[in-house]
Design goal:
Layout: E1 2-4, H1 18-27, E2 30-38, H2 54-70, E3 76-84, E4 95-99, E5 102-105, E6 108-111, H3 116-127, H4 131-142, H5 145-149, E7 153-154, H6 175-190, E8 194-198, H7 200-203, H8 214-222, E9 226-230, H9 243-253, E10 257-262, E11 265-270, H10 271-276
Parallel strand pairs: 1-2, 2-3, 3-4, 4-7, 7-8, 8-9
Antiparallel strand pairs: 5-6, 10-11
């Protein structure tokens, strides 16, 4: 039994329609699929739902949800949003993923996941080449996600390392990096946040491991945190991408279960059940 709740379509920066995403999820045996378009940002419209398109997105998503339910399809559709910290708040949704994609310095919004060249330029021009000071600013913002977005899920916790494969720019096991990341992770666990294991950078060729990285994922387990596995798919073909790897990483970190998001909230499901795609009983209180 699997679910995938972090997906994008042609309404934002994805390549497939909502219906194509839903039908692909059904073919892949997903029990749950969540639509999670990027929230609108007036200062950067390059990858978000446009200002006049949100109601169209919501209407089309709800129509697909109703159709799948009426036809008794295998896949249950949920309608959500990936709410950027600085984005426009929307209502009428089933769930919210809270994410940080920008730093805010000197009155400017600085996108951290556009390209490695752009991020390098930000670090040089704004932080004097100090990558760890940049990451500390990023995690400071991540800590505020529950209060400022009302999110159900923390999106790609260490997105700041998207272009850092092989420690290209900084050491992801550096005490300085892990100290602030760990403090913020502990703070979010105390706020009952659910962290996604996100395979999106893997499907797009930036990393060969998911977010969070293994030291942070292991810390999350030690702190008693909760996880949910998501693909951050931008095409129908990448729904569920790398889920077996994500399960293996979760198990290595010490997790025995992940979560599914249902109409009634989060439900624990054993990793073996999630990984095997079998229709087994959801484990309550595991």
């Amino acid at each position: 039994m699997r679910g995938d709740y972090h997906t994008h379509s042609i309404f934002d920066d994805g390549k497939s329609t909502l219906m194509q995403m839903a039908e692909a999820a059904e073919r892949k045996g997903m029990f749950y699929l969540g639509f999670s378009a990027h929230s609108y940002q007036s200062f950067d419209e390059s990858f978000c739902v446009k200002r006049n398109k949100f109601q169209e997105y919501l209407r089309e998503a709800r129509e697909i949800q109703a159709l799948f339910e009426a036809e008794g399809r295998r896949t249950n559709i949920l309608v959500g949003i990936e709410q950027d910290l600085f984005g426009k708040q929307e209502k009428g949704l089933d769930y919210t993923i809270g994410s940080v994609h920008y730093l805010h310095q000197g009155g400017e919004y600085l996108c951290i996941d556009a390209s490695p060249e752009r991020l390098s330029r930000i670090v040089e021009e704004v932080y004097g080449g100090d990558w760890y000071r940049m990451t500390e600013d990023y995690f400071d913002l991540v800590e505020t996600l529950p209060e400022r977005t009302g999110c159900d899920i923390i999106g790609h916790f260490d997105l700041v390392a998207k272009f850092n494969a092989g420690n290209r720019f900084f050491d992801e096991e550096s005490p300085r990096y892990l100290r602030r990341a760990g403090e913020v992770m502990e703070s979010l666990v105390k706020k009952n946040a659910v962290f996604e294991i996100n395979t999106g950078a893997m499907s797009r060729g930036y990393r060969d491991i998911p977010y969070p990285n293994m030291p942070l994922l292991s810390l999350l387990r030690q702190l008693g945190g909760e996880i949910i596995i998501n693909s951050d798919a931008h095409t129908a073909g990448t729904i569920g991408y790398g889920f077996d790897y994500a399960c293996a990483a979760a198990a290595k970190a010490g997790f025995s279960y992940t979560n599914l998001l249902t109409r009634s909230g989060f439900a624990k499901i054993g990793l073996s059940c999630f990984q095997s795609w079998q229709e087994e009983t959801i484990l309550r209180g595991a």
